[in-house]
Amino acid sequence: MNEPTLLLTPTPVFHNVQVTAFRKIVDGKPVFECFCYPAKVVIASPNAVIGYQLVAPTDSKIVMTGMTKLNPPSERQLSDASVSVDGRLLLLSDRNTIPADIHIRLEFLYHGEEAFTHDPQIGNVPE
Q1: What are the structural domains of the chain?
Q2: Distance CA 76, CA 97 (A)
Q3: Rounded to an integer, what distance in angstroms lies between the CA atom of residue 30 and that of residue 113?
Q4: DSSP characters for 23-39?
Q5: Is the pLDDT of residue 36 over 80?
Q6: Mean pLDDT throughout 100-126?
Q7: 39: burial class by Cβ within 10 Å (0-12, 13-18, 19+)?
Q8: Residue 33 CA to chain centroid, in angstroms?
């Protein structure tokens, strides 16, 4: 009897991006600042998973609500994003089949009322 042949897909590489976001009052108006580390995630492997995670000292009233692809390449590279139930983690996958600098817009909500965004980059560098 012949053994079945298994075709294994390579395990995806996970890239974690730490996100901090702050709300300040400047001249009586709310201003939001957001920082990602790394500021630009560089993807070298195919079928990577990218996770943007809100970390301390981010206020617990700030959550992620989604993501928009600002300059998607002609060939689809990024999946739609999935946001965790608590809004602290956003995941997407990247095919990384063509070299490109991809701009995305992370979408946030403060205390369920005030929306703001941040525009990090993803650098695709296929091996």
Answers
A1: 14-124 (2.60.40.420)
A2: 9
A3: 12
A4: EEEETTEEEEEEEEESS
A5: yes
A6: 95
A7: exposed
A8: 17
